[in-house]
Amino acid sequence: MARASLRRGRVFVVTTLSGEGSPHHAFLSEDEVARRDDGRVALSVPGESRTAANLDARRAALLLFWVGRSPRTLALRRRVRGRGSAADPARRLYLLDVVREERPRLLPGESGGFVSGLRYERREGTAERGRRRAVKEELFG
Predict the structure, then answer these.
(1) Taking Cα atoms as reference points, which of 35, 47, 72, 66 lies closest to residue 55?
(2) Residue 43 to residue 94: CA distance in whole angstroms
(3) pLDDT tens sequence across 96-131
(4) d(Cα 58, Cα 56) in Å, to the nearest integer?
(5) Is 50 helix (H, G, I), strand (E, B) or coil?
(6) Are 34 and 136 in contact, with CB atoms under 8 Å apart?
(7) Contact of 98 with 74, CB cutoff 8 Å
(8) What is the CB neighbour count within 10 angstroms for residue 73?
(9) Which listed site, 19, 51, 116, 127, has its alpha carbon 20 to 30 Å from 8?
């Protein structure tokens, strides 16, 4: 039996809107998000998820993530429909253009800031680690 190892990493929060306009938040790991050399963002999400359905129905999404101790928000727009993932048939791949990037700014007289971003911890075996590596490679095209 393969032994599972502990994996830790950063969490990305993607927010999509349903057809009725309700927000839906999903948590992705760095294995499922890539900022490509062409400036676009690639996402790999479970094909049967609400996130995939919302990205197919509506073209807009927000991506929240941390750079050091500073949160960033990317406003994203999908140009073409998502496609099935070659690395994992249970997932869909989406390429999105960055419409706007927002960095937090303190108001005059305000002091403070974030101490840390969202992090995850999971156990994964060799097969899962290999599948996630293949998904990440596919995101970079």
Answers:
(1) 47
(2) 5
(3) 999 999 987 778 887 777 777 788 899 999 999 999
(4) 6
(5) helix
(6) yes
(7) yes
(8) 16
(9) 51
* CA gyration radius, the chain: 16
The count of C-alpha atoms lying within 13 angstroms of the C-alpha of 7, restricted to the half-sphere facing its C-beta, is 18
**Owner of token pair 């073409």:** 80
Quick check: 22 and 71 in contact, CB under 8 A? Answer: no
If we measure between CA atoms, which residue out of 54, 31, 26, 62 comes closest to residue 129? 31
Phi (first) and psi of residue 34, to 5 degrees = -145, 135
Structure tokens at 92: 């869909």
| DSSP state for residue 9 in the 8-state scheme | E
**CA 128/CA 2 separation, integer angstroms:** 11
Write out pLDDT tens, residues 25-81: 999 999 999 999 999 999 999 999 999 999 999 999 999 998 877 889 999 999 889
Which amino acid appears at position 6 of this protein? L
The two tokens of residue 94 are: 């989406």
Place of tokens 């190892």: 5
Contact 96, 62 (CB under 8 A): no
